[in-house]
Design brief:
The protein is α+β, with helices and mostly antiparallel strands. It contains 41 helices and 54 strands. An eleven-stranded mixed β-sheet has the order 34-38-39-45-42-41-40-53-54-52-51, sandwiched between helices.
C-alpha cells in the first residue's frame, strides 16, 4: 500500500514528516508539498499532523513509535495533544515551555527510553514556533529544552527531514506575530497560518429572521480577527434558498450589524456566484463525481441511514446531464430530482454519504428573479464562495464539525484554493431557544409580540429589554473563541450590561400603587429642591424632589416601622417615628413622624423611598413590567419537545405611583427605580387625552442585572421571597429571570400624517440650503418658525415628538441612499462638483505616495480645499474625505462611552440603600452567612475554587495571612527548643492500623492510593490524616537513652481528611495546611508542662495576633483526640452563626503510642527500659476562616494590623484631567517616598499606583481585602504637609501631619488591634451564659449562645445532649442541623458544683463533675 502525505507549506507538519521517514522501510510513504496538510488512506482521510502520526505509526508497529504498552500510548497521546495545543498557542507558549523544561529535567526522551511520536511531535512544534526561534537564537531558552532540542536535531532522521523542509523564516528573525490584543476579552486562540494583512474572514447570515445573540457572537468573533490581523471582513448573505430569503430581514440584519458597531469591508450575496456554482456542479457531473437522483425523499433518507447506494449512482455522465437539463428547465420530472455528490455511501460520517448539492425549486429568487430553477445547497455553495472570495479562515461553530470533511472534499474535487476551517463553540443560553424555526413558531403562535419581543434572544429583543450595545459587545468578547460547549445562564450577560448602565443612569422613585401608607411629617415645609439624579455621578444632572408634610411610603416598609425608631428617607434625611396607627386587622394605616435632620448618623437606619403628595407635582402613573423565561426547563434534552416546556405566563405587570420626573422619560431611556432595579422606558407617559380624559402610563420594562437575588422592594428589615427564590437561595445560585428582546420597529404613518412628514423633511432641506448659501438671519428664522409649527402639528396628531428617520444601511452606498431618502437631492452641479472633488483627492494622494514635490502637493491641496468650499456653499454640508475608498474609511469607529468610576462615599442623605453589586458583596452577613462567607473569601482574592470537591486554591492574600501566623508561632516554639523537620505524606496500611484506637476516628476520612498508572498496588498507601504513625517508628530508632530526651519536633505540612460533611473553605476542607508538633519526654510532668505552654502560645496567636478571644479548656472524653490521654483546646465564637469553632489543640498522649511503637529509653537510675511520655499539638489554616467570620463585615474582610500582610495601603488622590504632568509626577514621587518611609519604620505598607482604576475603586478594593489603614494623599495634602488616614474597622478619617506620620500610624495600628479584640471580646461575653436547667439550656442555644452547664462527663450523656438539643434547627443555610456539642471543660469555671446541682441533661442520674462549655460548632 502506497500512501501520499501532502505537507502544507505555510505550517509544515514536521512531526508527520519525521514519522514518515521513520517508517519508510515498513510503509511506502511519498511526501508532496501543497497548501494544506492531508493524508488519504482507503476511505479515511486525515488533515492534521497528530492524526497522520498515529496512523503511520500503527502501520509500522515494529517501530514502537506509538509505544509498546497501553500506558505508553496514553502518555504519547498526552504529548501529541500538548504539541498541537498549548505548545502551538502563542498565548500559552511560555507556560507550556516551563512545563516541558520541568519534565525534561531527568530524562532524554518524553516516553520510554527511545524516540516516540511524542518526541517527533514536540520537536516539530518547537521547530515551526517563532517564539522558540527567538528564545533559542537569543540564548534565553530553558536549558533542558535546549539540550533536548539539539540532541534530537543531531539524529540522522531529523537531519534528513530538515533538509527537505522549505524555507521557514521562523527562527530568530523578526516575524509578523499572530498574537491578539487580549485586554479584558476572553481567550482568543491564534489562527493557524495567519499573518498581518493577509487574513480574510466572513460572516454569512441567512436573511430568514432577525439576528439573535448567537449570530452576534459569530459576527463579533469574525470582526475580532479582522481587526487583530488588519485583515478583511466579508458580510455575505446566504440566499441559496429562495423560499426563505426576505428583503425585510436583509434590512433588519444590516441595521443590527451596524448597531453592534461592525463595519464589514465587503458586502456580498451567495447569489452573486450562482453562475460559477452551477458550472462547478456540471463539472462534478461530467467528472463522474456527482449524479442526479429522483429517488423519493423518504426512501433517499432511508437509504442514507442504511448506507445503501441509490439506483442512479452508477448512471452515466450523459444520463446525468440529461436529467440535469430537466432540472434546470424546472420541468415536472426535473422538479423530482436533485444532484448528489458521489462521495462514500459506506462512510461512518453521515455527511459524506452522497449529500445533496443542488435541488430544483421553481420559485422566483429575490435577486436573480426567474433566471434559475435550480439552487445550490448551503453546504455546496459555501466552500466554493469562500474560495472565490479569498477567505483564508472560515470560522464555523463546532456543530458543523461533521461537515468539515465534506467541505474539503468539494474544494479538492473542484481544484479550488483551500480555506482553513476554524471552529468555535456556539453560544448556548438556558431557558430559551435560538433556532430560527422555533423562534418563528413563538411569533406565529402569538406567544410573543414579535421578533423584537423583550423575552426573545434576538439582538433587538435584548436591546428592547434594556441591553446596551456596549454591554452586549463586552459579554460576547469575554467569551473568546473557545471550543468548549457550555450552557450559559442569563445572569452573566446581564451582569456585563449592568457594569455599563449603573454609573450613568438616573435614579428615580416609584411606589406600589394600592399598597401605600401615608406618613404625616411634623414640621415639614412644602418646598422643592434639586438633587443629583445619580449620587455618584454629577454629570447625569439634577432632578426635582418635592417635600411636604404628607408623604407616601410602601406598605411593606410601613409594616417594619415601630414607634421611636429612626429611619432615613433617601434624599431627605433622618426622621423619628412618633406613632404607628393600625386598623382592626393589625395592618398599618398611617404613620406620624417628625424631622430629625440634625442627626447625620445613617449607618444603622432603614433606608426608605418616598413620594410627597402635592398638587404642584402630581404622581406619574407607571406600569413596571417583569418578564420570565419563555422556556421553563433550563436545558432542553435532545429528545425534548420544546413546546412541552413553553412558559405561557411570562409577563407580570405592577401598577406604580411614579416620581413626577418620570414624565420626562422618552422611549429607550434607562433609569433605576431606587431599591427596585433598572428599567427601560418602552412607552413614555402621555398626559390625559382630550378625547378620553385618561393619561397613558409610563411603561417600564425591568432590566435584569445579573444579581443572584432580586433587588429589595421595601425596608432593610423587610425581606420578601417566593418559594422559588428560597429554593434558589438554598442552591446558592438563583436563576436570574432574563429573557431577551429587540427595539420596536419604527411606526408606518399613512394619510395626512405621511404628507406632514414629507413637508417637514422638505422644510428641513430648505433651511439647510439657506444656511449653506449664507442667507440672512431673518430669512432663516422665518423658515425655522414654519418648521417648528409643522413639528407641533405632528405631535398633536401622533402624540410623539418629531424625530428624523435614521437610515439602516451600514455600507457607503446604502448610507448615501438613506441620506437621499431623508433629505432633498443635491442639484446637478453639486453632483458634478463632487466628482471633481473625488478626482482631485485621488490626485493629491498619488502625489503624496509617488514622492511629488512639496510645492506641487501644496498647490493640489489648495485646489481641493477650494472645491470643498464651493460644495459647502452650494449644499450646506461639509464633505469629509475625497475619493477615499476601502478599508481606511470603514475602520473609523465611534469611541465607546467610557464608564465613570464609582466614587467611594460615606452613606449620606443622597445615597440610596446600599445595593448588592458584583464588584462588592452581594450577600449580607446577618442575612445569609454562607453566601456572605463565600463571597468574602473569593472577592477578596483569598480562595479560588478547584475541580476536586472540598479542595481549594489558597491565593497569595490568604497564604500571606497563614505565613504571618506561621512566623509568629514558629518563633514561639523555637524559643521552647522545638526544631522543624519534614516527614513523608504517605503511610503504609500496616503502619496506619498499628494503633487501631487512634485511627478509628479517622478511618472514614482516610484517602487511599490504590493504583500506580494502570497497575494495582500490592498494598494500599494512605495519605496522612495525621502523622503519629508516620513519625513514631523513627522516634523508636532515634530514642535510646535519656540523653536523647526531650525530643521536640515540628513540621509544617498538609494533611488530607476526606470529609463528606458540609465543606467550607478554611473551616472544613479535605486538604488543609497545618503545623503538627510531636514531642517525647522522660516524665509525665515535663510532658504536661509543655502541653499547657503550647496551649498558651495558641491562645496568644488568637488573642494577641488575630484579636480573637478564646476559651481555654480541656476536651471532654467524647471529643478528645483518639489515642490520647487528654486534649486541651482554645475555642473561639462566631456571632453571625452562633457557633463555636475549635481554634487549636494540644494533646497529652501519655505512653499509648510509645507502647505501640516501642519508643523506650534507658532510665539512668534504674538501668531499665521505660516508655516515653508524648505530646502532639497542631493549628491549621482554619485560623484564616476564623478571621473572616469574627471580624468581617458587609464590606469585606477586616484584618487585625498585627496579622495583615499589608497594614497600610497608600492611594494617590486628586489626579484630575486638569492636573499638570509635573504635579502628577510630584504626587506620585511623594507617595513612593512616604511608602518607603513607612516600610523603613517597620510598617508593612504598599502603594496602589495603578492608573487604570479610580481612587474610589481602589478604596473599595482594599476595603474588601481588609487592609487596616488607608492613607490618602492628594496635591492639596502635599502642599499642607499632611495626609489622611481612614480606618477599615470604623471608617473614621484622621488628618495627620507628615512630620508625625510614622508615630501616629503606629499608634493607630495598635489602637485598631486593641479595638478589634475589645469588640470581639464584648460580643463573645454577651453570648457566653450559664444554664442550670434543660429548658434554659435549649432556649439559650436557640438564641445563638454558647452555654456553660453542669455536666457529668459521661460519653453517653453527651451524645444525648447533642441529640436532644438538635430540634431540627438549621443553623446556617446549606449546613446540617445540629445540637449542642461539648466544646471544652473551661479551666476557668463559672461557679463551683454544689451538692444539689444536677447534670444538665434531664434524664441523667449522674452527679455533675464540672461546668462544661456547650454550643453548636463547626
Amino acid at each position: 500500500m502506497s500512501l501520499t502525505v501532502v505537507a502544507g507549506t505555510s505550517c509544515p507538519p514536521i512531526g508527520a514528516l519525521l514519522t514518515a521517514e521513520y517508517v519508510k522501510n515498513a510503509v511506502q510513504v511519498k511526501v508532496e508539498w501543497g497548501q494544506n496538510t492531508s493524508l488519504k488512506a482507503n476511505s479515511a482521510s486525515f488533515s492534521n499532523g497528530s492524526s497522520i502520526c498515529r496512523y503511520l505509526a500503527r502501520l509500522a508497529p515494529q517501530s514502537k513509535l506509538y509505544g509498546s504498552s497501553l500506558l505508553e500510548r496514553t502518555e504519547i497521546d498526552h504529548w501529541l495533544d500538548f504539541s498541537a495545543g498549548r505548545l502551538s498557542c502563542l498565548s500559552e507558549f511560555d507556560s507550556a515551555l516551563d512545563y516541558l523544561n520541568h519534565v525534561l529535567g531527568p530524562i532524554n526522551f518524553l516516553v520510554g527510553h527511545d524516540v516516540t511520536l511524542a518526541d517527533l511531535a514536540v520537536w516539530g512544534a518547537l521547530r515551526v514556533n517563532p517564539q522558540w526561534g527567538r528564545l533559542l537564537h537569543g540564548g534565553k531558552a530553558p536549558v533542558n529544552v535546549v539540550r533536548y532540542y539539539n540532541f534530537l536535531a543531531a539524529q540522522d532522521v531529523f537531519i534528513v527531514v530538515e533538509k527537505t523542509l522549505p524555507e521557514i523564516k521562523l527562527s530568530g528573525a523578526k516575524q509578523e506575530t499572530t498574537s491578539a490584543k487580549k485586554g479584558e476579552s476572553g481567550k482568543f486562540v491564534d489562527l493557524p497560518g495567519a499573518s498581518m494583512g493577509n487574513v480574510v474572514v466572513r460572516f454569512p447570515p441567512e436573511a430568514s429572521g432577525y439576528l439573535h445573540i448567537g449570530h452576534a457572537k459569530a459576527a463579533l468573533l469574525n470582526q475580532y480577527y479582522q481587526q487583530t490581523f488588519d485583515g478583511k471582513l466579508i458580510m455575505r448573505f446566504d440566499d441559496t434558498n429562495p423560499a426563505k430569503e426576505d428583503a425585510h430581514f436583509e434590512e433588519v440584519i444590516l441595521v443590527d450589524v451596524a448597531m453592534l458597531g461592525i463595519e464589514p469591508d465587503v458586502f456580498s450575496f451567495t447569489s452573486d456566484f450562482f453562475d460559477k456554482i452551477l458550472e462547478c456542479c456540471e463539472k462534478l457531473i461530467r467528472d463522474g463525481k456527482a449524479y442526479v437522483d429522483d429517488t423519493d425523499p423518504e426512501l433517499m433518507k432511508q437509504e442514507r441511514e442504511q448506507r445503501t447506494e441509490s439506483k442512479h449512482r452508477k448512471n452515466s455522465a450523459k444520463k446525468n446531464l440529461e436529467m440535469w437539463d430537466e432540472m434546470k428547465k424546472g420541468s415536472e420530472s426535473g422538479q423530482k430530482g436533485c444532484v448528489r455528490a458521489k462521495i462514500d455511501m459506506a462512510s461512518d460520517n453521515g455527511c459524506m454519504r452522497d449529500p445533496t448539492i443542488y435541488r430544483c425549486k421553481a420559485e422566483e429568487h429575490i435577486k436573480t428573479g426567474k433566471k434559475f430553477k435550480v439552487y445550490p445547497t448551503y453546504d455546496f455553495a459555501c466552500p466554493i464562495v469562500d474560495s472565490l472570495e479569498d477567505v483564508t479562515h472560515a470560522l464555523r461553530t463546532t456543530e458543523y464539525h461533521d461537515r468539515d470533511d465534506q467541505y474539503y472534499w468539494f474544494i479538492e474535487a473542484l481544484g479550488l484554493r483551500k480555506p482553513y476551517i476554524w471552529e468555535y463553540s456556539r453560544l448556548n443560553l438556558q431557558n430559551t431557544v435560538l433556532s430560527k424555526r422555533r423562534l418563528t413558531w413563538f411569533v406565529q403562535e402569538g406567544l410573543v409580540d414579535g421578533w423584537d419581543d423583550p423575552r426573545f434572544p434576538t439582538v433587538r429583543g435584548v436591546m428592547r429589554r434594556g441591553m446596551t450595545v456596549e454591554g452586549l459587545k463586552q459579554f460576547i468578547v469575554s467569551q473568546g473563541s473557545s471550543k468548549a460547549v457550555v450552557m450559559m445562564e442569563w445572569d452573566k450577560i446581564w451582569a456585563y450590561n449592568k457594569k455599563v448602565i449603573d454609573p450613568v443612569v438616573p435614579r428615580y422613585t416609584a411606589l406600589s400603587k394600592g399598597s401605600t401608607v401615608r406618613v404625616v411629617v411634623k414640621g415639614a415645609e412644602a418646598e422643592m429642591k434639586e438633587v443629583p439624579k445619580h449620587p455618584k455621578n454629577a454629570d447625569v444632572g439634577n432632578k426635582q424632589v418635592w417635600y411636604g408634610s404628607n408623604v407616601l411610603i410602601d406598605g411593606a416598609d410601613a409594616e417594619t416601622l415601630s414607634v421611636g425608631e429612626t429611619v432615613t428617607f433617601i434624599n431627605w434625611g433622618n426622621l423619628n417615628v412618633t406613632a404607628v396607627k393600625r386598623n382592626s386587622s393589625g395592618k398599618v394605616e398611617s404613620i406620624e413622624a417628625e424631622l430629625n435632620l440634625e442627626n447625620k448618623d445613617f449607618k444603622k437606619t432603614q433606608k426608605l423611598t418616598w413620594l410627597t403628595e402635592t398638587d404642584q407635582a402630581p404622581f406619574v402613573p407607571a406600569l413596571c413590567v417583569h418578564f420570565d423565561h419563555i422556556i421553563t426547563k433550563a436545558v432542553l434534552g435532545k429528545d425534548d419537545n420544546f413546546k412541552d416546556y413553553v412558559n405561557k405566563n411570562t409577563r407580570t405587570e405592577l401598577p406604580m405611583l411614579g416620581d413626577p420626573m418620570l414624565a420626562t422619560l422618552k422611549k429607550g431611556d434607562i433609569v433605576q427605580l431606587q431599591r427596585r432595579g433598572y428599567y427601560i422606558c418602552d412607552y413614555p407617559y402621555e398626559p390625559p387625552s382630550r378625547y378620553t380624559s385618561r393619561a397613558s402610563p409610563c411603561i417600564l420594562f425591568n432590566i435584569p442585572d445579573g444579581h443572584q437575588k432580586e433587588m429589595p422592594t421595601s425596608g432593610s428589615k423587610h425581606k420578601e421571597g417566593s418559594a422559588k427564590e428560597k429554593m434558589q437561595s438554598k442552591k446558592g445560585k438563583a436563576s436570574e429571570k432574563s429573557p431577551q428582546g429587540e427595539s420596536t420597529p419604527s411606526k408606518t404613518f399613512t394619510g395626512d400624517v405621511a404628507g406632514l412628514i414629507a413637508k417637514i423633511e422638505e422644510q428641513g432641506g430648505k433651511i439647510r440650503q439657506l444656511k449653506g448659501k449664507k442667507a440672512t438671519k431673518d430669512q432663516i428664522d422665518a423658515e425655522v418658525k414654519i418648521l417648528l409649527a409643522m413639528k407641533a402639528q405632528f405631535k398633536n396628531e401622533t402624540g410623539q415628538d418629531w424625530k428624523p428617520p435614521t437610515g439602516g444601511a451600514s455600507n457607503k452606498e446604502n448610507s448615501q441612499k438613506a441620506c437621499t431618502e431623508n433629505a432633498p437631492s443635491p442639484p446637478g452641479d453639486a453632483v458634478e462638483l463632487k466628482t471633481k472633488i473625488d478626482a482631485q483627492g485621488e490626485k493629491v494622494r498619488q502625489l503624496k505616495s509617488g514622492g511629488g514635490g512639496k510645492e506641487e502637493i501644496d498647490k493640489a491641496v489648495k485646489v481641493l480645499l477650494d472645491l470643498k468650499v464651493q460644495y459647502k456653499t452650494l449644499t450646506g454640508e461639509d464633505l469629509s474625505g475625497a475619493g477615499k475608498k476601502g478599508k481606511k474609511e470603514k475602520k473609523e469607529k465611534t469611541k465607546p462611552e467610557q464608564k465613570k468610576p464609582q466614587q467611594h462615599e460615606k452613606e449620606d442623605i443622597g445615597r440610596e440603600v446600599k445595593k448588592v453589586t458584583r464588584l462588592g458583596l452581594e450577600a449580607k452577613k446577618e442575612e445569609n452567612l454562607s453566601d456572605w462567607y463565600t463571597q468574602v473569601i473569593t472577592k477578596s482574592e483569598m480562595i479560588e475554587y478547584y475541580d476536586v470537591s472540598g479542595c481549594y486554591i489558597l491565593r497569595p492574600w490568604a497564604f500571606g495571612i497563614w505565613e504571618m501566623i506561621k512566623e509568629y508561632f514558629d518563633s514561639g516554639i523555637k524559643k521552647m527548643g522545638v526544631e522543624n523537620c519534614y516527614f513523608p505524606m504517605f503511610v503504609s496500611q500496616s503502619a496506619l492500623e498499628r494503633e487501631k484506637t487512634h485511627i478509628a476516628d479517622f478511618a472514614p476520612e482516610v484517602a487511599w492510593v490504590t493504583k500506580s498508572g494502570q497497575s494495582e498496588l500490592a498494598e494500599p498507601i494512605a495519605i496522612r490524616p495525621t502523622s503519629e504513625t508516620v513519625m513514631y517508628p523513627s522516634y523508636a530508632k532515634w530514642i535510646k537513652s535519656h540523653r536523647d530526651l526531650p525530643l521536640k519536633l515540628n513540621q509544617w505540612c498538609n494533611v488530607v481528611r476526606w470529609e463528606f460533611k458540609h465543606p467550607q473553605p478554611f473551616l472544613r476542607t479535605r486538604e488543609f495546611l497545618w503545623q503538627e508538633g510531636h514531642s517525647a519526654f522522660a516524665t509525665r510532668k515535663e510532658a504536661e508542662e509543655e502541653v499547657y505552654q503550647i496551649l498558651e502560645l495558641y491562645a496568644s496567636v488568637y488573642e494577641d495576633l488575630m484579636a480573637v478571644p478564646v476559651v481555654r479548656g480541656r476536651k471532654t472524653e467524647k471529643e478528645k483526640f483518639a489515642g490520647g490521654d487528654f486534649t486541651t483546646t482554645v475555642e473561639a465564637y462566631v456571632e453571625a452563626s452562633g457557633r463555636a469553632i475549635q481554634g487549636a489543640t494540644a494533646h497529652y498522649l501519655g505512653q499509648n503510642f510509645a507502647k505501640m511503637f516501642e519508643i523506650v529509653y534507658e532510665n539512668p537510675d534504674t538501668q531499665e527500659k521505660e516508655y516515653v511520655h508524648q505530646n502532639s499539638w497542631g493549628i491549621t489554616t482554619r485560623t484564616v476562616g476564623v478571621i473572616c467570620m469574627v471580624h468581617g463585615d458587609n464590606t469585606g474582610l477586616v484584618l487585625p494590623p498585627r496579622l495583615a500582610t499589608v497594614q497600610v495601603i497608600l492611594v494617590p488622590c486628586g489626579i484630575t484631567a486638569g492636573l499638570s504632568d509635573l504635579d502628577r509626577k510630584a504626587l506620585m514621587d511623594k507617595c513612593e517616598e512616604l511608602c518607603k518611609q513607612f516600610q523603613a519604620a517597620g510598617i508593612r505598607a504598599r502603594g496602589d499606583y495603578r492608573d487604570n482604576y479610580s481612587p474610589g475603586w481602589k478604596f473599595n478594593h482594599w476595603e474588601l481585602k481588609g487592609v487596616p489603614v488607608r492613607v490618602e494623599l492628594g496635591p492639596r495634602d502635599m502642599k499642607e504637609g499632611q495626609f489622611v488616614t481612614v480606618r477599615r474597622d470604623t471608617g473614621d478619617k484622621l488628618t495627620v501631619k507628615m512630620a508625625d506620620g510614622i508615630s501616629k500610624l503606629k499608634d493607630l495600628l495598635e489602637t485598631i488591634q486593641a479595638d478589634l479584640y475589645s469588640r470581639a471580646l464584648k460580643v463573645r461575653d454577651e453570648h457566653l451564659v450559664v444554664s442550670n436547667t434543660w429548658e434554659d439550656f435549649c432556649s439559650q442555644l436557640d438564641k445563638k449562645m454558647i452555654i456553660q452547664a453542669p455536666f457529668c462527663g459521661e460519653i453517653s450523656c453527651e451524645e444525648n445532649i447533642k441529640k436532644d438539643s438538635a430540634r431540627d434547627v438549621v443553623v446556617e443555610e446549606g449546613a446540617p442541623a445540629m445540637g449542642a456539642k461539648g466544646l471544652c471543660i473551661p479551666f476557668k469555671q463559672p461557679a463551683e458544683i454544689k451538692p444539689d446541682t444536677s447534670c444538665i441533661h434531664p434524664t441523667c442520674q449522674n452527679k455533675p463533675k464540672f461546668y462544661t462549655l456547650f454550643g453548636r460548632s463547626y
